[in-house]
Every structure is written in structure tokens, then in C-alpha cells.
Records
---
Amino acid sequence: MNQFAKLLILIFIASSLRLSASEMNRVDTIGKFNEVTDIELRIKKIANEAKVSDSLAVVLQDSVLVPVFIDSLKTEEIAGLPKKESAFAPSVIKTSLDSLYTRDENGIIQLPEEEFPYELYLGSMNFRDTMLYNPLFVPIVFTGRIEEADSTTFYSEEADKLKGILISSDKTFKPLLDKQAFADKVRRHYFVEHPASIKLSTSELSGIKYTASDKDVSEKFNPFKELLSSETSFSLERPNVEGVKIGRIYWVKTGEHSLQFSQNYFSPNWHRGGTSNLNINSNHIFNVNYEKDKIRFNNRLEWRLSVYNAPDDTLRSYRIGDDMVRYFADFGIDAYKKSWSYSTNLEVKTQLFKSYKANEDELRSAFLSPLYVNAGIGMKYHLDKRSKTVRNRRIRLDVSISPLSVNYRYVGNNEVDRKRYGIPEGDKSLFDKGSTLTSNMTYDFTKYISWKSRVKYFTNYSKVEAELENTLNMSLSQLFSTTIYLNLRYDDSVPSHEDYKYLQVNEVISFGLNYKW
């Protein structure tokens, strides 16, 4: 029992001694670590020793930059000693790096020269027009860049640089960027180690353009100026060319032409009968308009002709359906508003060819038989408005009101029955006084569909002569169109018809060519 107690006492004493030794070692290790790493404390210690030994103040001058690496942290130790000769010898700072590297006479640690793997770059070298493509094999030109692009980084980078990256670096620009970084590193090393061998500098080379910074490019760079720059000898100054003044055109000429066809066929046993025929419709319109200041002078010449075959006519193989030559003119001066003007108008209408009744030699109409002339003085209203919501939709309207007007009818051919046109027997003409209302409207639904309407109303306050023309033009293209024409005429000065009384109707549906200019 006594031996066991003695053994316990020995174990307790040994453990206490080991614990105190380890505590001392730990305290001694921490103290040494603080003594090595605390640069400020060591500089103060050196300064105090200098005061005691030589009673001189320590002045920091001609500082020397000493890179010190401690626990992967890079700091800068600035130590200064007076140049004045003294018996004082400063203490030399020793770190863990002194066991790996040597120092020069100024106390700067000397790093070994790195071995650059030039062999890695030989595989990417190629030739283009006998010029070396790799920048490491061209003459060294000093660019002014010595410091690394990442020299401001204080902490070391992580070991795993690909952490969190979804795409492999081999499939990106990283290999090319690494090669460029390697070339820059070799160039900087050459600048530092062999400055006397560098004979060229970018500031001395001719033809080197200034590389603008991002701020200069965003604020001062003008791409249009670069586009206009030229290395040729041509001058960009305005040539001395005499200007030509283009006068205003007061006469405007337009036209519209159409040649259309229509065909009807009836079998011999058609229950209501009928005659097969082929129609050819021709329509030509010429407009010559003058406008200057407040004066307007409009002229319109129209010729419409319709010819069709007549198999049921034993005397003629063809007949004239519609034959009309009409000239309309109005002269006006702008009134108190631009839409209204004082105007006078003239309309002359006749035909060119003779027209006969079916299976008879009776002449129904011919040139200047009849001839219609209407003239008046009054006011005219003009409107030209385009739609703001539908493209190409437009309305043009001209309304002429002539309170004082005359209407003249003339039949010059003696073979034509003058009573048919309201002329008394024994006379060749009829002259009436009254009032006239004329309206012309053109409404463009779209670019290809338009509607033209013309209204004429004359009265001598005892008889009425009215005419309404409507034309619907549907263009399939710029050259092909379909036309529906309807002409209604009312004249109570002519003999009454059994069915239509004083109403006369003319209707045509045709398809063919259409041209405007």
C-alpha cells in the first residue's frame, strides 16, 4: 500500500513538472513569435538602444523598401538609420526568411531568378507573311508597364480557382489569357533585369497611335470623325459649285387610261332569250391644272367609248354603246377662306361617232349632234383631306354653285331627230337661263379601291336636267382593275318613255387594264 501511494505521488510530481515546462515553452514560443512579427515593437526597441548607447535621436531618412513575408502576409518594413558616423551599430533584424534567402549590403532579401518555361510557348508559334506571331520573339519595346496588373492584391488567392465555375477553363479564353499573362511577365522581368538592352520605346516610335482610356473613349471619341478621316489626297472641303435655283411648277399634268372588256353568252334555248356579245370599253382622262398664289385654273378632258358586237343586228356587225367627249374647266380666285373661291366654269359635251338604232338606218346621234354647253358664275368649295388613322384613305371634293348660268343645246346633223333632245321642231338649238350646281368627288378607300361621283343639276325654274355618274374602281395591281360604272340621267324636256319616263340608265361592269400617271 505504501509503495502504491509513493507511485501516485511520483506520477503527480512528474505531470506537474511537464505541465509547467510546456507552459513555459508555450509562453516562450508566443513571445518569440510576437518579437519576430511585431515590426513596430522591434523598431522602437532599436531606437531605445540607440538613445542609450549614443544619446542620439533616430531620424528616419532614405527609407529602404524591404519585402518581408510572414505567414503568407506581405508587409513593408521601413527602417532608417542616420548617415552620421557613430560607434553605434544597429541590430540586424532576423526573420524566418533569412534561413532561405540571402541579403545584400543594404539588407534587401535577394530572390532567386525564376526559370520560365519557354518550351510551352514554342508550340503556339506560327508564321504569317514571314513575321513571327509570338510576341516573345519580337524586339523588346518598352511600354512603361512594369507593375503587375494584380499588384494591389494583398491576400493570397484561393487554391481552388475553379470552385463554383460550371464551364471548364479549357473551353474558355483562359488558356489564351494565361499565355498573354506569361508574355507580360517575361517582358516585365526583362525590363528590370536588362534595362540597358532595351533600345526602343513606344513614346519614341513614329506612327504609334495614342491608346485612349475608357473614359476618353466614352467622353471624347467621335466615331463619325474617324469615318470621315482619309489618308488620300482628296479634300473634304465643299467644292465651289454654282447653285441652280429650281423654279416652282405651276402647271401640273396628270392622266388616267383604261381599256377593259366584258363578255356575255346566252345559249339558243335560254328561257328568257338574249344576245351574246363582247364589249370593249375605253376611257381616257387628261387633267391640266394651274395654281399660283390665289389663282386657280383647272382643265379636264375626258373621252369615253364603248363598242360591242351586234349579232342580232342584220345591218351592222357592231354598234356604239357609249360615246362621249367632255371638256370641263373652271377658273377661280381664292376668297375670304382658302377653301372658297370666286369661280366661273364651262362644260362642253358631245360625241365623235354615229349611232344607229338596231336593224334600222335611223341616225340617233352623231358628232355635234347633240352638243351641250353649260357656263356659269358663282362660288366654288374645295376640300382635300387625308385620314389620320387609315393609310392612303383620302377624300377630294369640289362643289361649284353658279346662281347665274346658261345652258345651250345644239343638233347640227339634219338626219338626227331634234325633238329627241328637247329642241323645238324647226330649230337647231335651245338656249336656257337658270342656275347650275356641279359636284365632283373622289374617295379613296384604300390604295387600290376608289369611288368617283359626279353630280350636275341645272334648272331654268321650269324644267330640270340632272345627271349622276358613279364609278367604282377596284385595282388588282397597278395595271389590272375591275370597274363598275352607273350613270343616271333625268331630263323632263325630252319626250317621256313608256317604262322609265324621264329617267335614263347606263350601267357597265368590266375588267381590264388601267394606267395612271
---
Amino acid sequence: MASFENQTIKEADRYESPECWRLTREQLLNGTAEDFHTLRAEVTPVQERNAVARKKNKVALDFKKKLDARIIRDRVSGSTQITLREFLLSEDFCAPYLRISANGGPLLSDVALAIVDAIDGAPITTIDDETHQRIFGCPLGMLNRRRARKYLLSAGGRSGKTSRFLACVAVYCAWTTPLPNLAPKEGAFAFFSAPTKEVAVRIIRFIEGIFTTSPVLAQFGTASTESAKLVRPDGKKIVFRVSAKGKLSGRGGTCVFYGVDESEFFLDSNSFDLEEQIKGAEQRVVPGGMVGIVSTPFIEGEGEMQRTLQRERGKHKGALCIEQVSTRELNTTWDPTGEVEADMLAKPGGDANVRREIYAIPFPKGTKRFFNTVKLREALVCLSNRALKPIAVGAGSDLGMRRDGCALVIAKRYQDTMIGVPRMRIEHPTDGPLVPSVVCSDFAAVAREHGAAAVAADGVYAETYREHLNHAGLALLDAPTGREGKIGMFTAAYQMFADGRVCLGDMPEDERNDLFDQLSRITTKKLPGGSEEIIVPRRIVRTEADAAQATTDHCDGAAAFVIALWASGAGAGVIRQPGSPVSVPEQVKPVAPAAPPKVRGVSFGTAPKIKGWGR
């Protein structure tokens, strides 16, 4: 019989589907008409059986959806009266999320369960009396047996306090708080404040993770970039909103939860009054809702949290107060070998940083912030006169590679004595140690782009750095080291801010806010004999749902910043060696000479006032 390829190719295409697995294109195109009709007769009943099977599957899927919906309704009907502990440990709600963040450890540690029971007003049975005295300030069994309306938690970094005791508790309040007076189409809200936008937005990411992993909440909750929404089975809608330093008002509407993250680091009281914000929110949180404040401690007695903890310790009349909860007590899988803690201890000021960052013991009274936060805030909006050509360009760098980050800062000194800071580049070891060759070559390219003749740095990775800088035509300048060198550079930077000569407004907004955060964390304290110690603390720069994977740095950008100021010519009191590769022109005379101020025996120039620039 004749071939029928041309006549049947379109008809053959219909059978290239899974149910016709026995037929191949070659069989259909190369066979005879008789073969084709025989095979088509075999295929027809297969198609009919598949059609029947698909119909049965659709009926089964529809039944399963209805059954799942009924199961969820049954779960929901009994879930509005559950306790916080039951909500957190329930497989229907937070347990799947907590299992991921626990990283192989218990969903909630014994100390975490004790805190949850205290919030619930339930008896505490998971810790001993000594631990109870330390974190609650009273003997075991002496806590008020009532559900907390307001609680404060001071805990170590990377402990998961934000994800567990802000995000999870906020979702619990949104799900269970009675809202009988909420009018139709009127929404309630849960509101969060944080020192920076990045810290605020991460709370929404935690809430999104809770919604995604919960088989019940996944049916009712959604999240966007900076907000989340929960529409309860009773039709009540709760919106989760966040802000940096109260830019969104928490004073309007019906509030089921108000949370503050990292409350110890709200530094600028001129632009935002955290105490007043909390007072306003407390009055607007409906019965059944809560106010939660969590933070790593900073300086004893300073800030709203520390003042409340001192006032309420052991009493718990106005708020449930929990303090000195270490990282390991909440996150049992963090640093199992002790390697991270040992590395922190080995660095200058390590003992104070370990006590604060891991064991939640604040810096003692008498510790002061090194930089004036008001002057820092003024520098954020100060712009340099870019119509002028810089007379010196300084590049400062601080390299960490493994646990700390690597930072490069560019500083440009102008004829009017102002110093502009146009760029800060920071690399963090988020997915493993950084590669020295890659970081050094990238930093060299940035420094050359801004016209620097050299990069100033300490001795870390000096040979690798020097090699890549030389390839870029730059030199490596040894920055002052040791205690005196560090104090000299920081003191010079302090005076530059005091004189209003630093222009951070030249930087991109995210970079200058990050630098502000780092500089504002640096503290100083007096030592026996009258000397002074500068403490550069660690900070969390990225927090995942898994707290064990959070990333920290040693304020590397701040360290690179003071080195960059020194390299640009602001290093008064720090003598450069002859022949330094950084080119610094002759001394610039101020337009309006004035008696320079004296700071610890070091003399500094006074900036002239130039109309329209940086004042």
C-alpha cells in the first residue's frame, strides 16, 4: 500500500500524548494506512478510559477540597481560645515554622517555654529557681498569674527573639483577639517600630514564613514587601504594618498588637520619642491584645527598655520584665563548639561585647556613646561643595573575611576644610568566608575610581591587599595601630563631627544610614588611672528565620570610616612617617581663622561658615 505521510501527519500529531505511549511518530509516519487504522482502533478505548479516570479524579479532588475546608473550619472553631504555648507548638499554626528555625534543636527551649508561660500567666515548670531569679528578678512561683498585656525581653543577639517573641506573638494576637466592636469593612492592625527600615521589614518576612508553613494560616494570610494581611474566618481583617522610628502612626484605628524591635538603638530623641509612642500604643491596644518590646541590651539605665527593667524588676506590675536571657538559652544550636565566642573574646573589647551580645548583660553605667548622635544626624544631611575639586582623597579599609565583614570608605577633603564621604562599600561573609583576592581587587577598583592614591588599612591580609592595589596603580598605607593609634583616629573623627565638617549626605541613603547606625553604637568608658577605652561592639546585620544563620559584623564600616578620615588629612595628633604614599597638599588656611579648640592635647582647625553649604 502507498505511504500516507502527507495525508496523516496532522492526524498523527493528535496522538502524541501520554495516553498514547505505545505509538511513536515513526510508526505513524512510516506505516501503511491499514497499520494506522489498526493502531487508532487500539488507541480509542485508551482515550475513553483516561477520560473516565480524569472525571473520577476531578470528583475526588473536589471532595478532598471540601473535606480539607471542613477540617480547617473545625480546627479554627476551637483555636480562638488556645493559649500562646498551644499556638506556638501546634502543627496547625507555628510549629512547622519553629521547626525550621530551630535548626535541629527543640521547637522552644526550656527558657523560651518559661517566658511563653509567663506571658500566658501559667505556672512555670521548665526552669529552676536560680534561672527564674536571674531572668524574672523574683523567686520561682512569685510571678503574677495573669496574662501579660505588656512584656519586655532583653536577650542576646541571634537568639531568635524577634521571630519568636514579636512575629509569632503578633500573629497569635491577630488570630485570637476578640474584635466585637469592629465595624463591617473596618480593619484592625498590628504595628511594629524598629530603628531602621531593614530591621522593620524583616519582621514581615518572619510573618510571611509563619503564614507559608502553617496549614491553617496559609488559607487566610498573605504578605507583600512591607506589610502582611490576615483575614480571619469570622471576616475580621488584620493588617501588619512596620515603620522605621514611627514614620507610620500607630495611634489610629484598632490595634491588636504593638511591637518594638531593638528598642535600645532608637538613638535620636529629637526626631522620635519612643516612650511617647509606646504610651500612645498601649492605650489603643484592645483587650486581649499585647505590647511587646524586645532588644539586645546596650547601656545599663539608658533607653526606655532599660529604665522600665530597672523600675519593674521583680515587681511586674506595669509590665512583665525578662532580662539577661543569653543567646544559647533561646537558641540552643547556636555556636555549639564555642568557636564564635572565642573569636569575639580574642578581639579588643571582646569581654564587654561577649557579655552584652551573647549573655545580654548591658554595658555598665558610666559607659558613654563616643559620638554625639545629634552631630551625627546633622552630618547625614550635610552636603559637600562638589563644585570644588578635592585637594586630598583618602581611602580607608578594614578587612575581616571570615566572621567579620570587609569595608572600604572614601573621604574627600576640600579647600573649604569640609570632608565629603561619597562611598562606603561593605562585603559580609553571608554564604561562607569571603575570598581575599576578589575583595581586595574590588576595593582597589573603587578606590581608583574615586581618585585615591593609596588605601590605608591595618596589617590584616596586607600582602594580598598590596599586590592587588599595586596592580591598580595604588599603594597600601599602614594605618595607625595599637591603642594610641586607635584613640587618635577616633578622636580626630569626633572633632570633625563636633566642628560640623563631615558631609555624609554625599552617600547613598542606605549607606549613610548604615554608617550612622555603626558610629552611634561605639562607646567609651574610663579606665583606672584616667585613661579611656573605645569599645566597638558587634551588631546583627542580617537575620534569617533560622537564627543560627544570622550574620554579624564588628562595625567594620565605622573602622574604615575613621581610617579614611585620617588618610584624607583629618589625622590631627597622629604623625605620618616621611614618604607616606598618600599625597596630602600643604596645610589649608581657613578663610576665617579662629582659635582652634583643644581636645585631649590635640589641636584641630576650625571650619569657616560658607553660605549654602553643609550648615
---
Amino acid sequence: MDGILTTVHKAGLTLKAGCGIGYEFSTLRPKGAYVTGAGAYTSGPLSFMDIYDKMCFTVSSAGGRRGAQMGTFDVGHPDVMEFIRAKREDGRLRQFNLSLLVTDEFMQAVINEDDWKLAFPVTHKEVTDDDLDLEDKNTIVWREWPEGGNYVTNTEGLVACKIYKTIPARRVWDVIMGSTYDFAEPGFVLIDKVNQMNNNWFCENIRATNPCGEQPLPPYGSCLLGSVNLTRFVVKPFTDEASFDWDNFRKVVKTFTRMLDNVVEINGLPLPQQRNEIQRKRRHGMGFLGLGSTITMLGKRYGDPASVEFAEEVSRQLALAGWQEGLELAREKGPAPIMNETFEVTEEMLRKRPEMRTDGYQAGDKVPGRILHARYSRYMQRIAAEMPELVGQLAETGARFTHHSSIAPTGTISLSLANNASNGIEPSFAHHYFRNVIRQGKKTKEKVDVFSFELLAYRSIVNTEAMPAGFGDENAASTLPDYFITADEVTPTQHVDIQAAAQKWIDSSISKTANVPTDYPYGDFKDIYLYAYEQGLKGCTTFRFNPEAFQGVLVKEKDLKNTTYTFTLDDGSTVDLKGDEEIEYDGETHTAANLFDALKEGYYGKF
């Protein structure tokens, strides 16, 4: 209990400083479990999540900016069903993004239609008191766990977990898919892939991410993010001669790498543990914004093979230029401190990297961090296939940082600093749409009219009268080229293909959402996540507009016009209004959609 409430205090200080937070809650005992020290039965992880949720809303309300939190939860925890369904309750956990930690073991159980064991670690005392047989496969399952602590652990680092319930894996899968289809949550973090590809595989067991999922992080880890605006490198846009300035792009990446490295020195993080973590490893996350806008300006369709190839090449060039500069910075200023630390080889490390045993390493050997990072990181092995001499020099010198790249959603900076270029790796949501923004002192969100960067550029360069289909009149035809497409015109598999192409060269992760139409078939929808797993992604998130569940940040005009909201008055009578209709209520003017959402979710008047 002391640890849980101390963490609430630390989280409050972190949110007050303007940072977002990610937590794993599945390390807490399942609901109904007996806690010897307290002499009572626990209320379970979800009850404590409610505390963090209220804290975040209170802190963000005081500061005028919505707090950002990610809550992750292991798919094998006994309370996983409650976690999956948590947001079906109006107003609950609305200060959280929720993601499941999905393991290879679970995915294989789904594919093979096997049973799935819901389990939680046991201590040595519990084994003795309950007379548990650690060899009984009907009672105990051995799994990866983020902390050994007092739990029973074998020589390979696996923890003994007591089985609480066994159910068909497909049943769990169907509940997950149903919730994701209706409520866009929980997202997927494919946690085994995250840890397999982690550059710091030898000293970290990652179990949480930052609020949007693009930075898987260890305890007290921080993400210093920055994005390159890709639209600035397009030459002769919207013509047959359109091209991308690769030389200038590489030059900017190298300069920007130095800038982000400098930010480590002035990080401004509120907790000493956070400052120590960032200074020891010096990780940062360089990404890009405007990929969708850039693809359109080059005359390509987002999701087509040519655009997938471009997404991979942009990510590859960013990675190679960044690691080249990481070596130069290490020679000038010294490597990240962790590179010169010595680590003891364990059986767990040899299990995860069997090639180390082939290279002659044994348990108990001492190895510098720079060797474990450059030679045995699965990601750095990929870099070595392109530039073996570079990685050889990194193994000898040590890199300036442990991680270099990460693609964030960039919604705010795309809108405010890049004239609404497409967010991060995404296509443009639409070429004309509404953005629901929080303004301090307003009782509901405010609807703001916006246009895409590529539409504004096209109107400036080619045709001043060009507009997308349906503008002003839902029957109006488009006057734009057919390569001007938007998020929900991209198929889910195309979304995944773009993400997979970029992920190959991004050493952290990618925040990306596969938008699907409201009427998208549920049977097809379920296949998205299996396809993402097969393509080797680290995570997957979808969004399907569902006004019965929530009102999104980005909304299309046709969705508002086609959605009816029913308000129940004090006398029991009802009023039906279209989402785009404006209402005078409580001294302010609101859209019906935003007023309905604020009243239903309980945040009306609290901004």
C-alpha cells in the first residue's frame, strides 16, 4: 500500500511538470487475493487505477492541460477481463490510454485455439503455506515477470505463477476484439517483441510505454522526443518531377541528433530517479511528421507499394544518419555512461541470446555494456547488416545514446508548427474536418475548422479552387487528384504495412492508429491484430468512430451530420439533435456532440 500511494505522489509531481506517464498495473495482486501483511483481501488493480485516474484529472484541471497516462496490463493476469471492459463504464479511467501487454505465448494460444492460463506469481512462503507443487503444470506456469522480488524464480529468470483460472484463449481474444471495435481500447503492446528488439535487452525488462505508446520505457525512463517535418524536403511537389531531397534530409537528421542529445543536459525532469535514468542512457526519440502529406505531394497514394517503400527508406536513412552521428558524438563528448559499465552474464541472458554462448561467453563472465548493446542487440544487428564498420566502431567506443528513434503522434506540433501537416506516420485524417480542442474556462470542448497541409499547398501551387468531395455540399465532387486520400480510405492491412516498413528501422516504437469506417465488418476487423502480430509490430491501435461510446478529438463533418444524440431533460422528455447542431446551454454555445460527450463522461464544466 505504501508503495502504491508513494507512486501516486511521484506521478502527481511528474504530471505537474507537464510530463506524461506510463504504468503497469498487473504487478498488483488480483482481486480477492489474500495479503498476509495487511491481513485482508485485496480490492484488485482496477480499484487502484481509479485513484490514479482521479489524481490525474485533478492535476490537469488545475493546470489547464489534459494529463496523459498509459495504463498497461498483462494478458495473463487473473483480472484481465475486468481491465478489458473497464472503459465500458461511462466516465471511468478517462485519463488513461489502456493497452494490453500481449505475449507470444498468448498469440500462439489464440492461433492454435488452445486454453489460456490466468495466473499470478507466488512467493516462497505461499509455496510452503499452500503446499504448492512447482512441477505441477495444472497448478503452476513459469513466465517472464518484470520483478523477481520475493517470487519463486528459476535459473533462467522465469517466475512461478499460480494458475487462478483456465479459459479458451479465443474467448479472451473475442472480448478484447469486441471492446476494441466498440471503444478503440485496449490497444496492443506486443511485449515480447518490444523486449526482444530493445537495445538495452541486457539490463531492462520493459512493461510500460509513454502515453501514446511510441516509447517503451523501463522504470523512471523518459522519452525526449523530436520530429523532422518531411514536407520540407519535397522538391517540385504535385508534378511528374516531384522528388525528395535525401542529402539535405540526412544533414538535418545529424544536426537534430546533436540537438536532442543536448536536451538531455537540460531535461527538466522532476524526480531524481528520472534524471539519473536519462543521464545514464541518454536515450532520445527522433521521428518525423508529415509522412502522409509528403507521400501525397510526391504524387503517391498512401498505402500503395511505392509509399510503403518510401516509408521504409525515410526510416532507414534517419536511422543510419543518426547512429553515424551517435558515434561522432561519443568520440567528441564520450559515450553514454552505461556503455562503460560492466555487466555479469547470466543464464537468462544466454537463453535470450544463444549466440553469446557460441561466442564463448559463460554465466559469470563480465562484459562491457557497449559490447552487449552493439553486438547483441537485435536492432543493432540490423544496422550492422547495412554498416558493419560503423557498428564495429560503436562496440569499441560505445554510442552516445542507447536509443535514437521513435515516431510520435505529433498532433499538436503538426497543427501549430507545421500548418497541419499529417500527424507522425499517419495519412491525413481528412482534408477538411473539425478538431475538438480544450480551452481553459470553457465547459465543453470547442470545435475548430481545419484543412490539411497538402490541400492548402495544392491550392497555393496548382489550383486555388480545389476542394475535397462533399465540401459545402455532401454531393459535391472532388476537384483533387486521386492520390489525395485520407485515413479511412486506407485499408487496415495497408496501415499495418506502412508501420511495419518503418518499424524495421525505428529502435523504439511507433504511435500509429489504423482508422476504420464505422460500418467496417467486425469479422474483418479482428484480422487486423493477427496481421500486425504476423508482421512483427511492437504495437497496434485502431479507431472506429462510435458516437455511442465517445467523441473523438478529430471528427469529420459527415459523421457529425449523420449522428443523432438524444438528450434526456429534467422532466423526462427527450430531445434529438444532430451532432453538428449548436445549442445554447448554461450560458455557452456548444455543439450537440461535444455537449453530449461532456455530460455523459462527467467532465462538463471541469476544464
